[in-house]
Amino acid sequence: MDESTKHLNELLAKHKAGILKPADRYEIPPQAMPAQDAIARRSNVSEVATGYTETQARLEALRCLGCKNAPCVAGCPVKIRIKDFIAPIVEGDFKKALDIIRENSLLPAVCGRVCPQEVQCQLPCTVGKKFKDVDKSVSIGRLERFVADWGRKNHDKTNPKIAPSTGKKVAVIGSGPGGIVVATDVRRAGHDVTVFEAFHKTGGVMVYGIPEFRLPKAIVREEIEQLKNMGVKIVCNFVVGRTRTIKELIEEDGFDAVYVGVGAGLPQFMGIEGEHLVGVYSANEYLTRANLMRAYDFGKGADTPIAMSKRVAVVGGGNVAMDSARTAVRLGAEKVYLIYRRSEKEMPARVEEVHHAKEEGIEFHLLRNPKRIIGDSGGVVCAIECLKYELGEPDASGRRRPVPIQGSEFQIEVDTVIIAIGNSANPLIGQTTNGLELNKWGNIVVDEKCKTSLDGVYAGGDIVLGAATVILAMGQGRTAAAAINEYLTGK
Amino acid sequence: MVDVAAPLVAAAAKPGQFVIVCLSTDYSERIPLTIAGLDTQKGSIRLIWQAVGKSTAELANLKVGDTVENILGPLGKPTHIEKFGTVVCVGGGIGNAPLLPIARGMKEAGNKVISILGARNKELLILEDDFKAVSDEVIIVTDDGSYGRKALVTEPLEEICKGASKPNLAVAIGPGVMMKFCCATTKKYNVPTVVSLNTIMIDGTGMCGGCRVEVGGQTKFVCVDGPEFDGHLVNFDLMMKRMNAYKQLEKQAMENYEQHKCRLKDIGTEAQKNSKF
Ligand SMILES: Cc1cc2nc3c(=O)[nH]c(=O)nc-3n(C[C@H](O)[C@H](O)[C@H](O)COP(=O)(O)OP(=O)(O)OC[C@H]3O[C@@H](n4cnc5c(N)ncnc54)[C@H](O)[C@@H]3O)c2cc1C
Ligand SMILES: Cc1cc2nc3c(=O)[nH]c(=O)nc-3n(C[C@H](O)[C@H](O)[C@H](O)COP(=O)(O)OP(=O)(O)OC[C@H]3O[C@@H](n4cnc5c(N)ncnc54)[C@H](O)[C@@H]3O)c2cc1C
Ligand code: SF4
Ligand code: SF4
Ligand code: FES
Questions:
Q1: Looking at the partner chain, which of B238, B256, B257 has a beta carbon nearest the beta carbon of A276?
Q2: Where in the sequence is the domain holding B21, given as residue range(s)?
Q3: Of A13, A77, A136, B46, whose CA is between 20 and 30 Å from B236?
Q4: B241 in contact with A at a CB cutoff of 8 Å?
Q5: B210-245 burial string, b = 16+ CB within 10 Å, else e?
């Protein structure tokens, strides 16, 4: 028996006897996430974090104090009953844990992997507070992932009960996390559901944005299979607004309600000189080519051309920037520079991704921002010119505003620049749907039930929130589905 | 040229719009092609293309009855069609294909339509008869003089603009250089000019930004803001540079493909020689 199993057994014995004190729990070391070797993984696309072992999961679960007021729950957008699912993990009853998570989250294997836990459920955790270090909080997300993966391995698919057919038809536009949740919840109520997806593959950003090494596509595929098993129809290669408009879906095709979950749209550029040069990509384009069209298999069947970049600059500090940089490494780049205009503290990316990116050899250039991109005579990128920045007064977002230092220009030689500074709203639905209220950024305006300005039309996820998260999109999906079900009952 | 059954696309399509074709779900590149014609009764759309790279060569290798794995569309904003008066339609090479439905639409709206069709040589001229059916006048030019006038399309275009009945609108579709010089010509005579751009595209729904062009100093996205723009505002030089982006890799993909399918060799290398990409 190894050390940690012995440790676990001792703790379990105390726990069963009811004599495991909070002080004992504080002493259990936070369980580190096992991960692929940093050098080896530079040249593969397999998942980086490999997941807790059963022993690790139960040790980590023992760190939870089961606080009466459970402050962690307030940090979770879908209000998962956190301590209630952690307690059965201690006992080894993973099935029970999974059932409790499923009450509130339909995609635990996804959220456990990609939620920014350190600013959500794990931020208010009592254990983290005690150590004044959010990294020492109970690893709720990793436990969630462990339980979900256990379910996948043991084929624990509870086929949700479906109410008798109501004869009502609902269209779900977009197959991202929001759309998947709406389809599930509305189908459960007995309505006839069709999901329309513009791409030839389903899953939204979970498939074309977030890379395989962070979220294996098989997980998303299983969720879609589940939808199909429930009788949800899925139509790919169908752009709502073009192939059919929302009005046509309702007035001619007989849909009684519509959910719009089309996600974020047009990538933002910086408006600097040289952005049109060959070798400058938006992160969306770069990641789509890499993920959806498998540029990493170029020559092995995949034929999407993507620059075989050797020296890459990625501009931005969010998850999208980290994913781009880490993808570039895997596509064979020798040098990858991450250029971000604030300091590391202000980076919106998940802490774990920043950590992994550094391990993989990505060079961080903090407090730097591009001034222009320089091309050669053929119009191909050859360098990027940056300015140094310092932090000034806090701005509207509460973060300290970066201020350029005059005369601090310097150049880095690169052949590829990836811009990952955010997206604005996808204009297509707005352009083609009369009477749909948008805000000044082009996002769809909804009320607290996710209803838009049009009757029977609901919306959620990135198209409403701007760039958000998987779990927020799912949360809105839940809300919208409940409202749709209520609306159809009255109809 | 092929007709593809795609009833939903056919029902919604209007002149000026395009589709994205993807040959296999797992790996294939997604290529935009203009809807050159449709049959709403049969529910089919007509695609015309030139085998310039791997994907188009692969497409050309399909036989009647084969299926194309994915077709997405119709995409892009439809052409703005109304009665302008006299409309000159200028087509270069394969650009004649997307131009045809526009010429037809303009004619049906009551315009006088003059079509100028350009090709490198007689063999490469397409759709001549179709244009005759929808135009008041058709002018043919070839680079080598093997058919029609030996000239570039800009010559007859300039004559028409200079003439007594100055056209109210010009529509030019073809290779980047051709559109660039057409616009330079019409600008001299203040003839409003619409061009249709065929940039690199990935999703075609306004997500990736791959199709960006500079129009009037602003960044525009061809798939959602276009494909048609005011030709006098388009920065053609930038656009043409971007179109060359993947030349090297596309060549490699083509070579890989050729090794697998030697019988395609002829189409492939021939197409590459002829290609302006
Ligand atoms: C690279 C990257 C990394 C990210 N990392 C994280 C992370 O670590 N953690 C996290 O929580 N969040 C992350 N996010 C954000 C998260 O993925 C999104 O917030 C979330 O996916 C939004 O979900 P959604 O339901 O709005 O739809 P999306 O996932 O955006 O999907 C929308 C779907 O609608 C389709 N569509 C669009 N227009 C139409 C139309 N007209 N007709 C039919 N279909 C249409 C699209 O093709 C797409 O499939 C990341 C995003 C990116 C891009
Ligand atoms: C809107 C649009 C839609 C498209 N859709 C399709 C499609 O459906 N299928 C497809 O395969 N491809 C499509 N394309 C791709 C593209 O049109 C062709 O690959 C491109 O036209 C090259 O054709 P070519 O080599 O035959 O032209 P070329 O034979 O090289 O040139 C044709 C003519 O252009 C004129 N020209 C050339 N250079 C100049 C110059 N410097 N000055 C003045 N005139 C000049 C000449 O008159 C010449 O005869 C589309 C393009 C556009 C613009
Ligand atoms: S869904 Fe996300 S925020 Fe909620 S408990 Fe799970 S990991 Fe935390
Ligand atoms: S706050 Fe932390 S310790 Fe308390 S119940 Fe939640 S996870 Fe457990
Ligand atoms: S093709 Fe992707 S934004 Fe236009």
A1: B238
A2: 2-75
A3: B46
A4: yes
A5: bbbbbbeeebbbbbbbbbbbebbebebebbbbbbbb
Look at residue B265 and tell me whether its pLDDT is greater than 60: no
| Fold of the A169-265+425-490 domain | FAD/NAD(P)-binding domain (3.50.50)
ipTM over 0.85: no
Which of A21, A100, A127, A135 is the pocket-test mutation for ligand 4 (most atoms within 8 Å of CB)?
A127
Instruction: Write down the residue that tokens 């989250």 correspond to.
Output: A105
Q: Quick check: B208 and A239 CB within 8 A?
A: no
Give the Cα separation of A452 and A460 in Å (integer). Answer: 9
Q: Are the CB atoms for A383 and A417 separated by under 8 Å?
A: no
| 3-class secondary structure, A100 | helix
Closest chain A CA to residue B260: A301
What confidence tens digit (pLDDT) does each residue in A362-377 have?
999 999 999 999 988 7
Helix (H) or strand (E) holding A385: strand A381-394
Domain A3-153: assigned CATH number = 1.10.1060.10
Of residues B21, B70, B54, the one with CA closest to residue B260: B54
Q: Is B245 on the interface with A (CB under 8 A)?
A: yes
B253, part of any domain: no
Dig out the tokens for B76 from the structure.
């892009």
Could you list the beta-strand ranges (E) of A261-297: 264-267, 280-282
Residue B271 sits at φ, ψ, to 5 deg, of -65, -40
Q: Which tens digits make up the pLDDT trace of B3-50?
A: 777 777 777 778 888 888 876 655 456 778 888 877 777 777 888 877
Residue B92 in domain: yes
A403 phi and psi angles, rounded to 5 deg: -120, 130
| 3 state SS of B46 | strand
Asked if B182 and B99 count as a contact pair (C-beta separation under 8 A), the reply is: no
In chain A, where the domains are located: 3-153, 169-265+425-490, 268-423
Q: Confirm whether B252 is domain-assigned.
A: no
Nearest residue (by CA) to ligand 1, atom 38, is A262
In chain A, which residues have their Cβ closer than 8 Å to the Cβ of B264? none
Q: Number of Cβ pairs closer than 8 Å across A and B?
A: 135
d(CA A292, CA B26): 8
Domain assignment of residue B263, yes or no: no
Interface of B with A in 47-106 (CB under 8 A): 54-55, 69-75
CATH code for the part of the protein at A268-423: 3.50.50.60
